[in-house]
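Q: My labmate handed me this sequence with no annotations at all. I'd like to see what the chain might look like in three dimensions before we decide whether it's worth expressing. Could you predict it?
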Amino acid sequence: MSRVGKKPVVVPSGVTASVQGQTVTMKGPKGQLQFIVHDDVEVKFENGSVTVKPRVETNRARALYGTARAQVANLLEGVTKGFERKLDITGVGYRAALQGKKLQLALGYSHDVVYDIPDGITITVPKPTEINISGNDSQRVGQVAAEIRSYRPPEPYKGKGVRYSDEFIFRKEGKKK
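A: Here is what I predict for the chain of 177 residues:
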């Protein structure tokens, strides 16, 4: 059984939560988010907290209800604090710059890579080699960070490329003479 799923998600003051059928909606200072829970999982809002439990005792329902509880907790964190990912760019001549609603990346190709910033996501470039991605939806922030990283993933010999700031790149030794 899931240990995460058993804990209720306590909704603090300043955040309004509602459950209609299988849809959980939360509204807070950073916006409004909603999540549709799978049919095998029962979700209730009572006494200022959201509780999640499996409807039936199947392996699938037990696997899904911990995930559903984590998603509801992510909704709460998203509307109160928000999410942020940091990317570092390593390499000679590799840099990033903002141009309106576009992120321009010079990553060693013959042309600059231009990335359109989606709605609900805020990107800042404090230094030409740092990118901060923030928003209230955990999945979208992670997806945008993964898309930007995919343009030039870090390589294991010199470590050049775009990487997450907390990512460790396992380095390989080069050719020997």
